[in-house]
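HUMAN:
Sorry, I am quite new to this. Are you able to go through these amino acid letters and fold codes? The numbers rather puzzle me.
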Amino acid sequence: MGVRVKAYAKLNLTLAVTGAENGYHNLDSLVCTVDLFDLIKLKKRKDDLITVEMHGQGTETLAYEDNNAVKAAEAYIKTFGTGGADIKIFKNIPVGAGMGGSSADISGVLKGMAMLYGKGGAAQLKELADELGSDTGYLLTGNYARLTGRGEKVERLKSNLRLNFLLLLPKSGVSTAQCYRLYDDLPKEYKSSQPAVDALLKGDIEGLGQGLFNALYAPAVKLNGEVETAFKELESFAPLGVNMTGSGSGVYALFDSPEMCAYAKSRYTGKCRCIQLRSIVWQKKD
């Protein structure tokens, strides 16, 4: 008998870099999960071994020792003393797009292991997740949230807004490490996430569109000109706002309806992969 977990992708609606500490950058970021997910299937083993099969997005050749899903399962087994698992991951979240695909898989495996073995409360899983990735703890619950620190401090935000996005994925990605290094060398212009947070909580989608920003956009563009091209292509549809997620290379536009989003997608003629997305509405029981 096995379990299935949907591990959802995220978008950064804002991303401010607020400093650095102990070799990590501190952030202030408004985030949401969207209806694009990796499907994770897990089955119990009679021993404490872990097997992983990857399918999709070019992950089939990912080395076992480099797979964060393996590290998540190992951490769970070490913490709770359970048996192992056979894990299959069917990836839909693009790799290297700034959508938290690796973190989503970590959180999905932790949740799946807890479902299999019945051990690990929310606080325990959050502690494990934080040790494995900066925004991994957030993706255990998803929905709207404000992340601070390295991304491990999660302030959940209640909103019923269903946001409509058109995402463009350049053919080449952006190295997160290089993007942060270049950010450190560039002039700084600090912006606050507060206006976007306020707009979200008031249900002001136009205000939210005006508040979108990402401090890593400038260095990402210097590393990959396709990011700027995608940004300008989306601007041509006159959306409520355009932004890059994470350290790139994914760029998205916010529209006020799914119909406007679908229209823009039908008219897009550029070279990027194009995906229509919606945010996931807050669920009190999560």
